[in-house]
Amino acid sequence: METMVKRRVHVAAAAMISRDGRQVLIARRPSTVDQGGLWEFPGGKLAPYETGFEALKRELHEELGVEIQRAQPLIRVHHEYPDKHVLMDVWQVREYAGEPFGREGQAVRWVRLDELFNYPFPAANMPILRAVMLPTEYLITAEEADDATFMSKLERALSEDAVRLVQLRAKTLENDAFVSRAKKALELCRRYEARLLLNGDPRLLDEVDADGIHLTSEQLMSLERRPVPEDKWLAASTHDQAQLEQAGRIGCDFVTLSPLRTTPTHPDVYPMGWHDFQQLVERAAMPVFALGGMTRHDADHARGVGAQGIASIRDFWKSCR
Ligand SMILES: Nc1nc2c([nH]c(=O)n2[C@H]2C[C@H](O)[C@@H](COP(=O)(O)OP(=O)(O)OP(=O)(O)O)O2)c(=O)[nH]1
Ligand SMILES: [Mg+2]
């Protein structure tokens, strides 16, 4: 039998974000081409001499008639189709000239971020959809004995730092106190249109209608399947390749990967540093937040090596004046 060598295809694609930040542009692939009839993020294959960004500029001009001025890396996705290996570099584009239209006759549509899942995309796109919907910063709340202090610090992070993704982590609270704090936190997060994930048992969602669950790496490794429904977010803490693979197997929507640096809370854990971090992120099947000594100033660098952004306790949890 002939051995088939799979074609390798390198693609640059764009998540174009509307000026109000609430919508993303998608296009329908003509029914005659590969993955025809499905929706996609505009873009196409790199020519042999091109960088990813050059290809992105050319493709968006050809397909949509727009001139891109700047783009930030969003996520890199490997996907095995039956006939080829696709590597997609997806960029977030907010600065462009011209109004996009279907220059090749294809349907083009601005859709709200929370409606993206209503459109059929190619199999490779799931991590991209997650990445488009997630912000670049993930706040992990600090232990706080008293609810009032907790709430005022959370509100400060939501209002002053514009945090939109929050993990409630409160290991020192008993179940009832945790649930009560979670309900208050949820109400506040809703007011700021922020998502709240609970660090703990997936059954907590029966008591508090939060947006999802964040698993510890230990919980993650003990599960055989996704423990929450598809309409909830599932995140997990990971520290190595095996945990990242397990997160992919049970269908985590995103993960944190740590420790990037040593931190006062974990002084004796060996930090992985950017090089190892990048290698692990490269193979991950979902968006990854860098954790461990990160501040917002690290977010651009984190995205440059393929991460979604940064997760932090200290950077968003400051004393109130
Ligand atoms: N542009 C784009 N391609 C995607 C997405 N998801 C996905 O699996 N793909 C796959 C389908 C194709 O095999 C490949 C992209 O090829 P393409 O058909 O857009 O390439 P191109 O614009 O250069 O087209 P052509 O000149 O070869 O006709 O990546 C996506 O969201 N956007
Ligand atoms: Mg194309």
TrEMBL record:
<dbReference type="InterPro" id="IPR015797">
    <property type="entry name" value="NUDIX_hydrolase-like_dom_sf"/>
</dbReference>
<dbReference type="Pfam" id="PF14815">
    <property type="entry name" value="NUDIX_4"/>
</dbReference>
<feature type="binding site">
    <location>
        <position position="29"/>
    </location>
    <ligand>
        <name>8-oxo-dGTP</name>
    </ligand>
</feature>
<keyword id="KW-0234">DNA repair</keyword>
<keyword id="KW-0235">DNA replication</keyword>
<dbReference type="InterPro" id="IPR036206">
    <property type="entry name" value="ThiamineP_synth_sf"/>
</dbReference>
<feature type="binding site">
    <location>
        <begin position="40"/>
        <end position="43"/>
    </location>
    <ligand>
        <name>8-oxo-dGTP</name>
    </ligand>
</feature>
<comment type="similarity">
    <text>Belongs to the Nudix hydrolase family.</text>
</comment>
<keyword id="KW-0460">Magnesium</keyword>
<feature type="binding site">
    <location>
        <position position="63"/>
    </location>
    <ligand>
        <name>Mg(2+)</name>
    </ligand>
</feature>
<dbReference type="GO" id="GO:0008413">
    <property type="term" value="F:8-oxo-7,8-dihydroguanosine triphosphate pyrophosphatase activity"/>
</dbReference>
<dbReference type="InterPro" id="IPR013785">
    <property type="entry name" value="Aldolase_TIM"/>
</dbReference>
<keyword id="KW-0227">DNA damage</keyword>
<feature type="domain" description="Nudix hydrolase">
    <location>
        <begin position="7"/>
        <end position="134"/>
    </location>
</feature>
<dbReference type="GO" id="GO:0006281">
    <property type="term" value="P:DNA repair"/>
</dbReference>
<protein>
    <recommendedName>
        <fullName>8-oxo-dGTP diphosphatase</fullName>
        <ecNumber>3.6.1.55</ecNumber>
    </recommendedName>
</protein>
<dbReference type="InterPro" id="IPR000086">
    <property type="entry name" value="NUDIX_hydrolase_dom"/>
</dbReference>
<keyword id="KW-0378">Hydrolase</keyword>
<dbReference type="GO" id="GO:0035539">
    <property type="term" value="F:8-oxo-7,8-dihydrodeoxyguanosine triphosphate pyrophosphatase activity"/>
</dbReference>
<dbReference type="GO" id="GO:0006260">
    <property type="term" value="P:DNA replication"/>
</dbReference>
<dbReference type="InterPro" id="IPR047127">
    <property type="entry name" value="MutT-like"/>
</dbReference>
<feature type="binding site">
    <location>
        <position position="125"/>
    </location>
    <ligand>
        <name>8-oxo-dGTP</name>
    </ligand>
</feature>
<feature type="binding site">
    <location>
        <position position="43"/>
    </location>
    <ligand>
        <name>Mg(2+)</name>
    </ligand>
</feature>
<dbReference type="Pfam" id="PF02581">
    <property type="entry name" value="TMP-TENI"/>
</dbReference>
<dbReference type="InterPro" id="IPR020084">
    <property type="entry name" value="NUDIX_hydrolase_CS"/>
</dbReference>
<dbReference type="InterPro" id="IPR003561">
    <property type="entry name" value="Mutator_MutT"/>
</dbReference>
<dbReference type="GO" id="GO:0044715">
    <property type="term" value="F:8-oxo-dGDP phosphatase activity"/>
</dbReference>
<keyword id="KW-0479">Metal-binding</keyword>
<keyword id="KW-0515">Mutator protein</keyword>
<dbReference type="GO" id="GO:0044716">
    <property type="term" value="F:8-oxo-GDP phosphatase activity"/>
</dbReference>
<dbReference type="InterPro" id="IPR029119">
    <property type="entry name" value="MutY_C"/>
</dbReference>
<dbReference type="InterPro" id="IPR022998">
    <property type="entry name" value="ThiamineP_synth_TenI"/>
</dbReference>
<dbReference type="GO" id="GO:0046872">
    <property type="term" value="F:metal ion binding"/>
</dbReference>
<dbReference type="GO" id="GO:0009228">
    <property type="term" value="P:thiamine biosynthetic process"/>
</dbReference>
